[in-house]
Structure formats: C-alpha cells, structure tokens
Amino acid sequence: MSRAEAGPASLYHRAVVYLLFAILVLPLLGTFVYSIASSWSATILPAGFTLKWYVQLWSDPRFLMAFGQSLLVCVGALVLSVVLILPLLFVVHYHFPRLDALMNILILLPFAVPPVVSSVGLLQLYGSGPLAMVGTPWILIGCYFTVALPFMYRAITNNLQAINLRDLMDASQLLGASTWQAAILVVLPNLRKGLMVALLLSFSFLFGEFVFANILVGTQYETLQVYLNNMRNSSGHFTSAIVISYFFFVLVLTWAANILNKDKSQ
Amino acid sequence: MSFVSVQHLQKGYSGTPVFSDISCDIAKGEFVTLLGPSGCGKSTLLRCIAGLTSVDSGKILLDGQDIVPLSPQKRHIGMVFQSYALFPNMTVEQNVAFGLRMQKVNADDSHRRVQDVLQLVELRDFAGRYPHQLSGGQCQRVALARSLVTRPRLLLLDEPLSALDARIRKHLREQIRQIQRELGLTTIFVTHDQEEALTMSDRIFLMNQGRIVQSGDAETLYTAPVDAFAAGFIGNYNLLDAGKASQLLQRPIHGRIAIRPEAIELSRSGELDALVRSHSLLGNVIRYRIEARGVELVVDVLNRSAHDLYPDGQRLALSIDPAALCEVA
Question: Which residues cross the membrane (chain A) (predicted)?
C-alpha cells in the first residue's frame, strides 16, 4: 500500500481531487445535458432528450464552413510556427546560447499587449495600403503565429534543455553526421514530445480564440468562435451543441496526439 | 615520431586566453591523461583536438597531418562525453551503429562490427534496450562502444567516469584501460581525479591555468612535483616555506620544500617531539595531523592493526627520509 492510500489524510486528499474534478466537469456536464435536451426551462430535469440540435448543427453549411476555416487558420499558423521557430530555436541553442535571454523577453511581448489593443494596431497597419490583409485569413495566420510563439518557444526550449542538444550534436558530428543529418536523425526525433505539447497547447488556445478573429476578420472569414458569437441569439440548446462539439473535437485531437506521442521504448 | 603533436596551440574567448602556446606530443598507442582542476583548459584542449572548438592559432598534427582545418567529421576521432551523449530515440544497437550508418557501411558488415564491439564492452544482451533503460555505467560502455566501432585514429575521453559511483568507476577504468591496450588505440583522457590519472595513464600532462605545468609518468609526477601547484594537486604533500622547513628539519633550508605524507615515519621511541592533534581513518591508511617543532604536518600511516593506532594527544618521535624531500618552485 502506498503512503497516499494510507491514513485519514488520504480521505481529505481524495475529497480535494474529486471536488476539483467536479468543479471542472459540472459546467461541461450541464452544457452537454442542455445540448441534448429537447426543452429545459421551468423544470428541474429536462422535458426530454434529443439529438436534433447536433443534427441541425452538423448539417448547417455555415457551421461547417466556420469549423473548416478555424481549422485552416490554426493549422496554417502552427505550420508557420514550426517552420520558423524550430530552426530558430536550434540556432539559438546550438550556436548563440546567449540569445536565449533576449528571446525570453521577446516571447513575452504577445502577453504584454492586450489582444484588443494589438488588434486596433493591426487594423491601422493592415487595413489599407500595400499590405491590406484585414478581413482575410492571412492576417489571422500572422497574428496567431505571434500568439502561439510563447507556447511553442517555451515548450520546445524545455525539451532542448532536457536532451542536452550540444553534446548530442557534437557526438553525431564526430560520428560523421553533417549538421543537417544530426538535426534530422538525432535532434528532431527527440523534440517530438516537446513539439507535440507545444502544438496541442497552441491549437487548443487558437481554436478557441475570439477577440482577434472578431475584430480582424469578423464575418468576412467566419471562424468557429465568431460563428458561436453570431449564433448567441438562437436557441441555447443549439449553442450548447456548438460548445460540446468544439470541446469534443479538442478532446479527440488531444487523445489522438497522446496515442501518437506514446514512446515506443516505454 | 609522435602520433599526435599539438604545436603552439592558442585559444581564448573574448580576449581572455583559455590556454596559450600549448605544445605536447603523444606516441602511437599511448594512453595520456590531461589532469587539472576545473577551468584549467583541459576539456577545451580536448574539444580543439576533436574539432568541436576552433583554435586561434597553432597546429594539431595527427599522424603527420594538420587536422586544424578539418571538420570533426573528417578527423576520424572518437570521443566519449561525460554526459554519455547517447541518442535517446535509438536503441543501444542503433546508437552504436550510427557512425557506421554515416559511413554507409553495408548492413551485414555493420551488424557484425556492432556485435563485436558490444561483446567487447560486455553489453551484447542489451542491444535492444534504450538508453533510459540502462544504468550510468552501462550507458558509458555504450558510448565507448559507439566511439570504438568506427575504428577511430584517436580516442578522446572527456571525464567519462565523473558521473558514476565509486565502485562502477573503478571497474570501468580498468575495463577502458584493458580495451585500449587490446586495440592499441592512442587515447587522451581528461580528468580532475588524480587517482584516475595515476592508475590509468602511461603519461600525465598536469595542467593549470591554461599551461602544462608538468608531464611525465605517474611515478615521476607523484614523487617529483616541479612546483607547489603540482605538489598540492597530486598527492597530499606537506608544503613548507623556507622558514617552516628550517624549523622542522633544524638546518638552514633556502627554498620551499614538499614532503609526501607517507614519507614521514612516526614511532613511540626516540625524541618525542611530535604531538598527534587528530586522526582520521581512510580505510587502509590512517591520516594523522601532527604538530612537530611548531609545524603542522599531515602524515599517512598504513593501517596494519588496531594496536598501531596512535590516539590524539599522544607524543611521538618523527623521522623524515631526506630522499623524500622535494624542492619545489
């Protein structure tokens, strides 16, 4: 029997865990029940259960379009992040480790400026002129790239520090590998976990992002959260179905990523 | 003719020299150790030889060829790191085969060579394991196998035993030395542990502040230190300035002298002018702190039996073999 299981303290520990779990799950459970309730207003329990809100939602072309557009923008931003940040991190940590301190300040900038303020700035910059991108997915991809930057940078940096990049690179080069071979055959496979964590964190955050999407593109390129906002005056059961669908999608994605991320050596 | 020749090598960072004008020669098949305290430049020198750190000026000749302009890949040098630097995503077999894969050795030949080298380090049964499934000692043996399988011209060992516990360290240093002798491989070993250096090396280069202060075999370094640093770093020499030395030996001494702790004899008979201040048991040796004629000395005595143990406060006679007195700069 482990120490955690023994003694009266364990009851308290379990109670705290279950309470926390309940606090997190209850609103979700309520939303889910509401999304499958045919009608639930003046009674304690729903009048009946139905899947019609889900059928209605998943057959709405506007929802499918918003879902697809959200996916496209998030995936685009993350691909851009990986393509730019991974080599940058490699160069910083292998060749210029002193730059890490500067990078740590830079990656905090997206947090330092509130989204409402920075989106006003972006509207000014990209609203007209040669770089007029407001209302197009491109501005969201660029903007989301900066939002994802701290998540990506921190998670991959932690991973890089854990694998002792310098020694691995040195060892592979002494064994005859070029810098590219060492990076692709040795470093990259060992960054898989950090990269996956960074991508999942960023994706979950970006998929639910509303402020930038609403101000910079609005209905011209409707994303899932903007769609949800625009549907706020329709049935509460319908919007609950949107929320649960969104949650379920992120859950399945996380689960799939975890399965893929399982270390074959474990 | 020497197999490795380091000639007037200089290296510095931002104007601060790590070492300047270092020169040394190593014969083929020799096992040499770069010994010195942290920050003395020994690891940087090793990395310069490997090609992992650039040099400011000077030459490194390997088998007559200047390897300074060559990249690490083209130097054909094997290296074992303190951190093992095993690739976590690869099994033991894949780790060891990595160098052969880079050399595009065919699969059959590669498999045979990997098995042979794993046999050499006694890890054939662990071929399918991942590094995190191995102990520190096993990891270091895999790292050794990985650096040997490509048949390097020179093997560099950068404090490979520092992260291991004492028992495994002792076993592994014997194993490394045995393999090195079997293969006749020229090896440069870096350590700050004098015991490791003394037991393993054909020759030792003692380094301090970016200079080689003394080189020679273990016996020479141990019995004839050239200066106070060497005397302090190798062994536990008693270092006495001229005044203290004259006071102890009761004759005029004009320079600084070093006396090995085991070269001083203690006995219960004779002129009892030494006093035991304290003692500590180091296993087969008892280390006494003695005060004799106003001078504090460390004396090592073989721990033969409990009967020989001198208690603190005991008055004893002290004698020093004149041949064991070393004059140091």
Answer: 12-34, 71-96, 102-126, 138-156, 168-188, 195-217, 237-260
Same domain, B207 and B323: no
Instruction: Find the helix or strand (DSSP H, E) in which B62 lies.
Output: strand B57-62
B contacts of A167 (beta carbons < 8 Å): 81, 83, 85
The verdict on residue B241 lying in a domain is no
Query: Smallest CA–CA separation between B72 and chain A, in Å?
Result: 5
Which residues from B are below 8 Å from A when comparing CB atoms? Answer: 50-52, 71-73, 75, 77-79, 81, 83, 85-89, 91, 98-99, 102-103, 130, 132-133, 143, 146-147, 150
- List the CATH number of the domain containing B302: 2.40.50.140
For A168, the closest of B85, B91, B132 (CB atoms) is B85
In a domain? residue B240: no
Q: What is the ipTM of this complex?
A: 0.85
- Do B121 and B269 fall into the same domain? no
For residue B55, name the pLDDT band (cuts at 50, 70, 90): very high
Count up the domains in chain A and report the number.
Answer: 1
Average pLDDT, chain B: 92
A252 CB-contact burial (10 Å; exposed 0-12 / middle 13-18 / buried 19+): exposed
The SS3 of residue A150 is: helix
Chain B residues within 8 A of A183 when measuring between CB atoms: none
Among A170, A175, A190, beta carbon nearest to B150: A175
- Position A1 pLDDT exceeds 60: no
Per-residue pLDDT of B266-308, as tens digits, reads 888 877 788 999 999 988 899 999 999 889 999 999 988 877 7
Distance from CA of B161 to the nearest CA of A (A): 16
Considering the domain boundaries, does residue A241 fall inside one? no
Q: Is A218 inside any structural domain? A: yes
- A7 belongs to a structural domain: no
Q: How far apart are CA B184 and CA B235, in angstroms?
A: 29
Domain that holds residue B59: 4-232
Q: Are strands B274-281 and B315-320 parallel, antiparallel or unpaired?
A: antiparallel
Q: Which domain holds residue A112?
A: 60-223
The set of residues, in sequence order, having a beta carbon less than 8 Å from that of A148 and lying 6+ positions away, is A77, A78, A81, A198, A202, A205, A206
Q: How many CA atoms lie within 13 A of B154 on its CB side?
A: 27
Residue for token pair 């409402």 = A116
Interface residue of A94, A166, A174, A192 to substitute, partner B, most B CBs within 10 Å = A174
User: Which positions in chain A touch B102 (Cβ < 8 Å)?
Assistant: 175-177, 181
Q: Is A124 a domain residue? A: yes
- The length of chain A, given as a count of residues: 266
* CATH code of residue B113: 3.40.50.300
The two tokens of residue B99 are 């160098």
Cβ neighbours of A177 in B, within 8 Å = 73, 98, 102
CB contact under 8 A, A172 and B87: yes
Whether B203 and B216 have beta carbons less than 8 Å apart is answered as yes
